[in-house]
């Protein structure tokens, strides 16, 4: 990895050491305005509580003064906008640049000031960062640089490989201003990276270095990401195969002012994917990945060896019919750990990394974006297996209808008492989710959407913390 990093440093040095005077050939301005309405019930799976939707690690918008009897909400109801403006410029000699600016805001929301809540004042002040603009994309791309098959991209850029099973979404920048609640709807997903792409059609080789966290300006408390991806497209059956290595070198999570680089958490992921159409109406595919490295939950804990698995197997059948109906059956596994707070033995919980693909409106994000009332519930990104059946059809040219049923269960047993593996174990049945979605293309530029979802907790959840979570999201999206 040091040699790979040195290669990128050398490429940067050569690129910027040679004087370059670029003339603008073409400038394109584009953007989008996406508006959402959210209505959510029992997102913590507990009714008659004070908080309708509780973010993981936070107090949330509905966390008001507990002594104030006016507030008895187990519902979140709010509006949100994502606004983007992008400028792309084509320069001379196969050089192009892209800059994208974003504002994400919950309409006129409170300031999430925990101190005001604790003092009994409540969240009465509008969020001062509501109208802030953040930088989403800012990169330069140079095609045929030094060597005709080579493309070099430097700066803040989107990264997506395959079906987004491992890399596709930088979840660390979903809400950098702390101004929005529904983080899974964030459009800020880019990475600060250097990407070298070698196009030897039908082979494509990508080498990426990304700085996730710099922290202090030294190498002892950083989080760095390394990616090597090899893709091959076959001439027949619309087939593709790829293999990859993804290394996250994390020296920052446990770093403090007195214990720098102690307890690093390194995750090395190797895997492969195949996908093909045996006939025009059928698509079959599968992906398998393995994680190794080390894990340390706290500075005082000993290193534990990682050993985790993930797999995705799916098949889609498309009917040759006017309404274009299709059905997909998919099985997904992310291996788990009995007790995430344990300090010994091998660590088997899957590390989410920067996955871009999600299957459900709620279950994927429990204990990842939204906290449940259950103290031993684990994030939806690990210790889970599920089967999903999803159907879609287009009764009108501009109308898409989709429906999915997802049944979920734990991979590893979870105990009733955190940190006590001798206590009784929970049922593995997490529950099931039904999601229905309609998308209507009003024009080429305007799309209306309506999503409704129900998560029904299974026997894993104890009585009183097993209420049905519901999600209704209406949207209008305009692109220009």
Task: Give an overview in words.
With about 475 residues, this protein is mostly beta strands. The protein has a domain of about 130 residues. The protein has two helices and 18 strands. It has an 18-stranded antiparallel β-barrel. The longest helix has 16 residues. It starts with a helix and ends with a strand.
Q: Tags for this entry?
A:
480 residues, mainly beta, 18-stranded antiparallel barrel, 2 helices, 4% helix, globular
Q: What proportion strand?
A: over 45%
**Order of helix and strand elements from N to C terminus:** HEEEHEEEEEEEEEEEEEEE
Q: Which segments are poorly predicted (pLDDT under 50) over 5 or more consecutive residues?
A: 9-20, 59-72, 113-117
Radius of gyration: 24 Å
Strands, count: 18
Question: What is the first-to-last residue Cα distance?
Answer: 41 Å
Tell me about the biggest sheet? 18 strands, antiparallel, barrel
What share of the residues lie within helices? under 10%
Number of helices: 2
Structural class: mainly beta
Average per-residue pLDDT, rounded, comes to 87
Quick one: overall form? globular
């Amino acid at each position: 990895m040091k040699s790979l990093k040195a290669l990128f440093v050398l490429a940067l040095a050569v690129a910027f050491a040679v004087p370059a005077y670029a003339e603008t050939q073409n400038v394109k301005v584009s953007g989008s305005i996406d508006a959402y309405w959210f209505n959510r019930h029992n997102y913590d799976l507990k009714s008659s509580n004070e908080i309708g939707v509780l973010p993981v690690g936070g107090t949330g918008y509905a966390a008001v003064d507990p002594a104030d009897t006016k507030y008895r909400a187990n519902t979140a109801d709010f509006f949100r906008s994502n606004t983007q403006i992008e400028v792309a410029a084509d320069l001379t000699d196969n050089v192009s640049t892209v800059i994208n600016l974003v504002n994400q805001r919950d309409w006129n929301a409170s300031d999430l000031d925990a101190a005001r809540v604790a003092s009994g004042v409540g969240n009465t002040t509008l969020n001062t960062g509501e109208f802030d603009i953040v930088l989403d994309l800012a990169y330069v791309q140079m095609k045929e640089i030094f060597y005709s098959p080579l493309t070099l991209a430097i700066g803040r850029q989107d990264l997506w490989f395959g079906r987004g099973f491992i890399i596709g979404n930088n979840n660390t920048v979903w809400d950098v201003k702390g101004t929005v609640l529904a983080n899974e709807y964030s459009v800020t997903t880019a990475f600060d990276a250097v990407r070298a792409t070698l196009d030897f059609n039908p082979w494509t080789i990508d080498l990426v270095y990304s700085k996730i966290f710099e922290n202090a300006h030294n190498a002892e408390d950083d989080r760095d990401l390394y990616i090597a991806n090899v893709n091959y497209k076959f001439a027949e059956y619309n087939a593709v195969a790829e293999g990859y290595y993804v290394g996250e070198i994390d020296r920052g999570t446990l770093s403090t002012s007195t214990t720098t680089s102690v307890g690093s958490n390194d995750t090395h992921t190797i895997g492969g994917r195949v996908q093909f159409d045996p006939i025009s109406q059928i698509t079959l595919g599968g992906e398998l990945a393995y994680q190794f490295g080390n894990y340390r939950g706290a500075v005082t804990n000993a290193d534990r060896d990682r050993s985790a698995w993930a797999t995705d197997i799916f098949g889609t059948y498309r009917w040759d019919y006017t309404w274009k109906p299709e059905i997909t059956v998919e099985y997904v596994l992310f291996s788990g750990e009995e007790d995430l707070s344990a300090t010994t033995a091998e660590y088997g919980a899957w590390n989410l990394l920067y996955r871009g693909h999600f299957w459900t409106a709620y279950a994927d994000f429990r204990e990842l974006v939204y906290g449940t009332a259950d103290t031993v519930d684990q994030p939806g990104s690990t210790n889970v297996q599920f089967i999903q059946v999803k159907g879609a059809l287009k009764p009108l040219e501009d109308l898409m209808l989709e429906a999915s049923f997802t049944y979920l269960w734990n991979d590893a047993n979870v105990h009733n008492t955190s940190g006590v593996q001798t206590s009784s174990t929970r049922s593995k049945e997490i529950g099931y989710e039904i999601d229905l979605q309609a998308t209507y293309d009003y024009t080429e530029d305007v799309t209306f959407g309506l999503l409704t979802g129900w998560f029904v907790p299974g026997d894993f959840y104890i009585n009183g913390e097993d209420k049905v979570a519901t999600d209704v999201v209406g949207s209008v999206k305009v692109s220009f």
